[in-house]
Automatic annotation (TrEMBL), chains A, B:
Entry's EC annotation: 2.7.7.13
Substrates-to-products reaction catalysed: alpha-D-mannose 1-phosphate + GTP + H(+) = GDP-alpha-D-mannose + diphosphate
Family in the record: Belongs to the mannose-6-phosphate isomerase type 2 family.
Name assigned to this protein: mannose-1-phosphate guanylyltransferase
Amino acid sequence: MLYAVIPAGGAGTRLWPLSRASHPKFLHALTGTSASLIQATVGRLGGLTSPDTTMVVTGASHAADVARQLPDLPAENVLVEPLPRDSCAAIGLAAAVIAEREPEAVMGAFPADHLITDVQAFQACVLAGVSGALAGKLMTIGITPTRPETGYGYLRCTSDEGQVREVAEFVEKPDKERAAAYLQSGEYLWNAGMFIWRVDAFLAELARQQPELHDGLRRIAAAWHGPRRDDRMAEIWPDLKKISIDYAVMEGAAAQGLVGTVPGEFGWNDVGDFHTLGDILPGDEQGNVVLAADDAKGEVVLRDSEGVIVVPRSGRLIAAVGLRDAVIVDTEDALLVCPRDRAQEVKAIVDGLKERGATDLL
Amino acid sequence: MLYAVIPAGGAGTRLWPLSRASHPKFLHALTGTSASLIQATVGRLGGLTSPDTTMVVTGASHAADVARQLPDLPAENVLVEPLPRDSCAAIGLAAAVIAEREPEAVMGAFPADHLITDVQAFQACVLAGVSGALAGKLMTIGITPTRPETGYGYLRCTSDEGQVREVAEFVEKPDKERAAAYLQSGEYLWNAGMFIWRVDAFLAELARQQPELHDGLRRIAAAWHGPRRDDRMAEIWPDLKKISIDYAVMEGAAAQGLVGTVPGEFGWNDVGDFHTLGDILPGDEQGNVVLAADDAKGEVVLRDSEGVIVVPRSGRLIAAVGLRDAVIVDTEDALLVCPRDRAQEVKAIVDGLKERGATDLL
């Protein structure tokens, strides 16, 4: 049985005004169904795990929403970060807590805010990753690139073929030219932040590279199932090193030949902005995508419009005439309209709101 | 002193979702100031008339709003049509009521839903029209065409020059080719539905061409200032002929050489749709026009956008990035987004709502 760890953080600024600090993107139904992203993340693991062996690591302000959206999850499996301490502390805490229960367990980390359309292909990759993990490797699932993307980090593999490959190094986000060369070579995969390993193998690398962080997490985990959990957290967590898991562990492990990867092709999308979301979700004959919430009452009337992405969340009628490739996000207190190819710039709007202290809209 | 008659009818379907059957366009602040169109219509008559000599003719469902928006108007000057009976009955009733007070008074009819930017030039035209009216003519104010418009009727003049001209005939909305020829010739003016005449001269023509309509209106007017007003209205009004004033009186009067016109160039706009509205109102440096209501709380953030017309009426934040020549109309229960050059097609949305019986949105 696989332990599944779901890191649930990140505001999803480029999905404003839907995604807010108080209700970030993983809590929203951006899947084309009534499931939220985090519900879909748990759901697509299907028979590979169970509620008892599924853990979410999330911020204090989202714990209640997570608990309600995943009612089958035991309460102690919602790991609440009192303060954000980046991905190494978050994933490392889960690994340490799992190790308390089962020291040689295999765990996979699957971010709460990704979309995957081909669940069967995804599960096959996870199973291949588990094989590598059982052999002692720190495995990742890498995404076979489909375009020269400059927004992601890459994994450089030692080969351009094979269902399981060795990772030579973790590569930063490239410029356009490099991204094109990476795509061409076939040796590079997108780093999607999905990991699979035996917790003992991971914790050994953590102890080697980040001994203080390792010891702190171990001490918290030792108290996890007893009465001193909160005290330990309060005492240790705030002083833990803020560092990403790639910097803290994976790069060093790759240099030691300890990291493997499974190239995945399963319709992966990190739901970065409304434009890319519209590319992956099924639309009508004109390519219009309406992302209605489960309890949506409002209607959407699109007349002679193509490639329009509508997110109706206010219950009002939304009418458009003659629109092409536009985004309309309609919430109770804010409306966004932009061309699809400008959807990334929504971040600038949010930055402007921050500067002005318009916190109720963030 | 000029009697001013303000016909206040018409739903303004192409201004949906702002303009509604229950709150049509003349009640809205579409002037670039906090004044509604009807308030601006009364306001621009300035010293030419007074509240005592200003009358509004409107439907029963708008009487209360009109009375509140024009608090200085005596109550008996709000002429309420129990049922719509087209423009000849509406304007004719006002003429007959004025004739009861002052049989040789000069009245002008100025529709409640037009925008005029150069008030001084407008007033000069009105005064020129009054001169013609005092000489016994049925005067109109014609608009000097600025484009080959196919959406208006035209006045064919007997000359292409002069501050006052004779109107040879009223011409229907032309096709593109004819409209271009009209523009070229200089002999054609747009028929803007603005009239100035001595009420005795108008009523004589009405009696000659529409004797039944004339007699009915005269009988209602005779009872206007007494206790039998409502009875007379109920008895006579519903059976009055439904006919426009152009068909009923003006075309026949023109054939008799009785109609004159004053060509006007004063930034006239009939507020037909949001596109043309955006052309006439002052925008920011990028040509964006925000039509905020007086009590608007919501904010509009336009980032790298040009030529966008925003009508914020819900109090929400409206944010746009990278938009060009678009229309955003944001009301409590409905949102419209379209390119400016498709703004006329909003009517099709409204027709669709009618077909489906979505009366609360009309």
